[in-house]
User: Fold this.
Amino acid sequence: MRFDDVDLAQLADRLPTPFYAYSASAIRERIGALAAGLAGTDSLVCYAVKANSNRAVLALVADAGFGADIVSAGELERSLAAGIPASRIVFSGVGKTADEIDAALAARVWKFNVESHDELLTLEAVARRRGETAHAAVRINPDVDAGTHEKISTGKAENKFGVSIDEARRWFADAASMPHVRLDGLHVHIGSQILSLDPFRLALERVRDFARELQDAGHALASIDVGGGLGVGYRDDRDRPVSAGDYVALVREVLRDFNGRLVFEPGRWLVADAGVLVTRAIRIKRGESRDFLVLDAAMNDLLRPSLYGAWHDIVPLVDAARAPARYDVVGPVCETGDTFALARDMPECRAGDVVAIRSAGAYGACMASTYNSRPLVAEVLLDNGRWAIVRRRQTIAELVANECLPEWRDA
Ligand SMILES: Cc1ncc(COP(=O)(O)O)c(C=O)c1O
Ligand SMILES: N[C@@H](CCCC[NH3+])C(=O)O
Assistant:
């Protein structure tokens, strides 16, 4: 399999597996398509850093003039280090601490997407202490079912994210009591891996109607942030993702009367298809009722199948003429949930074969852990036939480096 003009099987002969490989060209292509759809609008794309926070990926985002949607002080630091200016950074999340808010104000981030009244009070207090004014958007929870996996749905009333329109209305009415917060935006993000335009339309219409109401009441709105959520096709035979062009057209149509800036926070759509997890078969285990393809990658490296039952194409990089086979594809971790796929059809595999797990560029390496004391794997950037390690594999010494014995044992 060639990926960004690099032969992945040959690369696996040079580098120990497993490793993630990202195509810079594929990311640039998505960036270009989105930028083209937004040409001529007052808009800002703030890449959701959580989707893939490798610095080399963030540098591609910075090159494009895009900003960042961050959810922690760590993501703030990464984004700034990668060259994304603070003036293009929005700070989301239900659990921003006072220290994180302070750090973000010190860096002069553009906007806080505020998700609770307590957070609003904290923002006011921290900004007052600093003698500054924070710009804030209220994250609206529009109570819309995004039709996605329940663990990644964020726009229903029972989800922890955002506040109701009724609550937001009270915040705006009470804005004078918050002299150090300028409430001048609305934000909405209803979930991830959304494969239909309908929930987006519903959420946008609710936000648009509320924006009109606020403007009629004399509140100036500088921005509406429509979040991320655009899905990708993990399964060719089932997933029918909406095109970015249609999505952008929908946002532009619903918000056509809005004069301020439109903010987009795509994560997955920009990077998922640009990543492959390259692994090797350790062995085939013949079971009573099934055969197991045991890979050297596991749930700690790519959690999505275990966590959401998510589908990822699994492609052995072998001669297609091999006999057909069916495997439960598993990793070495001691959990039954360490399963990438059940009863998956593919060419017969042998120990040592290279196996590519596709569409792993989003929520892959960034969600990895060291469970079972398995070091974090390397990440490699491919670019038109070139490749470079952009995060080297963790060593076991590094993995245990922060551990120590209690002092009473040393004594
Ligand atoms: C506030 C916010 N914006 C953007 C995103 C990015 O979502 P996606 O990767 O689905 O585009 C997320 C994650 O779901 C999020 O929580
Ligand atoms: N981590 C999830 C998406 C969550 C999006 C973040 N709010 C996934 O892999 O699909």
Observations:
- The radius of gyration is 23 Å.
- Residues 24-269 form a domain with the TIM Barrel fold (CATH 3.20.20.10).
- DSSP finds 13 helices and 19 strands in the chain.
